[in-house]
Automatic annotation (TrEMBL):
<dbReference type="InterPro" id="IPR011611">
    <property type="entry name" value="PfkB_dom"/>
</dbReference>
<protein>
    <recommendedName>
        <fullName>Ribokinase</fullName>
        <ecNumber>2.7.1.15</ecNumber>
    </recommendedName>
</protein>
<keyword id="KW-0119">Carbohydrate metabolism</keyword>
<feature type="binding site">
    <location>
        <position position="288"/>
    </location>
    <ligand>
        <name>K(+)</name>
    </ligand>
</feature>
<keyword id="KW-0479">Metal-binding</keyword>
<comment type="pathway">
    <text>Carbohydrate metabolism; D-ribose degradation; D-ribose 5-phosphate from beta-D-ribopyranose: step 2/2.</text>
</comment>
<feature type="binding site">
    <location>
        <begin position="254"/>
        <end position="255"/>
    </location>
    <ligand>
        <name>ATP</name>
    </ligand>
</feature>
<feature type="binding site">
    <location>
        <position position="290"/>
    </location>
    <ligand>
        <name>K(+)</name>
    </ligand>
</feature>
<comment type="subunit">
    <text>Homodimer.</text>
</comment>
<keyword id="KW-0460">Magnesium</keyword>
<feature type="binding site">
    <location>
        <begin position="221"/>
        <end position="226"/>
    </location>
    <ligand>
        <name>ATP</name>
    </ligand>
</feature>
<feature type="binding site">
    <location>
        <position position="255"/>
    </location>
    <ligand>
        <name>substrate</name>
    </ligand>
</feature>
<feature type="binding site">
    <location>
        <position position="141"/>
    </location>
    <ligand>
        <name>substrate</name>
    </ligand>
</feature>
<feature type="binding site">
    <location>
        <position position="185"/>
    </location>
    <ligand>
        <name>ATP</name>
    </ligand>
</feature>
<dbReference type="InterPro" id="IPR011877">
    <property type="entry name" value="Ribokinase"/>
</dbReference>
<feature type="domain" description="Carbohydrate kinase PfkB">
    <location>
        <begin position="22"/>
        <end position="296"/>
    </location>
</feature>
<dbReference type="GO" id="GO:0004747">
    <property type="term" value="F:ribokinase activity"/>
</dbReference>
Amino acid sequence: MLGPIVILGVFVADTAYRAARQPRLGETVMGDSFALGPGGKGSNQAVAAAKAGGKVHFLSRLARDAFGDLALRTWSEAGVTPEVAFSEQGYTGAAYIFLEAGTGNNAIIVSPGVAGDISEEDIDARADLIRRASVFVTQLEQPLPAAIRGLQLAKEAGVVTILNPAPAAPLPDGMLALCDWVTPNESEAEALTGLLVHDPITAEAAGRMLILMGAGGAVVTLGAQGAVLVPGDGAALHLPAIHVGPVVETTGAGDAFNGGFAVALSEGRSPADAVRFGIATAGISVTRPGTAPAMPMRAEIEALLSRPS
């Protein structure tokens, strides 16, 4: 029996404001709409993976408050098993999301709350779960020592490890060597490598640089241009995006991709097929508003992948 997908990360409540443009400092603009919903990169990835058919456990920290209750409801509805430590003081995280009405593009501020206190001890308390996983995924919204400890435990046990290096941040020496796959977008790849990334050719160059820096392989996501798979032992492959319909919101696209990618790898699919599965998951998600609520079900992903090209 395949082991579960274990994802370490942060839950935040997304407060999303849609307007024609962002206000300048000192300025107030009128918005078109407001929505409150579940978010956080790790949580979004866990929801995406569970709805895409994975058996998912999510490691995080919550406060006992209304946003913490929202997290537990979100995971229950998606089929995610929570592996959560509770803080008696502090607050569950929140995010400000600006959505540009004309394009669906976004700008985000994240305040992780008590998830900023996730520690190596929290990870060690779930060490047995991590060691029996098929895939372990983490990002950079929680403290780096916790992410590194999770990657160490997984790597030592032969679990496939994925680092989604978001939001972009400097990585300590040796961290990439713990990663079988690193999955940056254009700006994150540029931040890690110093190389400008804007198309498949430059994405491959950044992926090769990440491998030289220690990663086992890289997938550089390019939004509407799809993704570039750069394995550690073979030729790079550009896989195009799959057009599903008009783009409504891109906020959760990277999380959708990573959740789908993790599911496909956990099922033993090839890296190229796993990237295609992730692209299909993301392609559907951007046609819907929200982040976690936009994640597609397994049947939708399979139907898209079987559609004639």
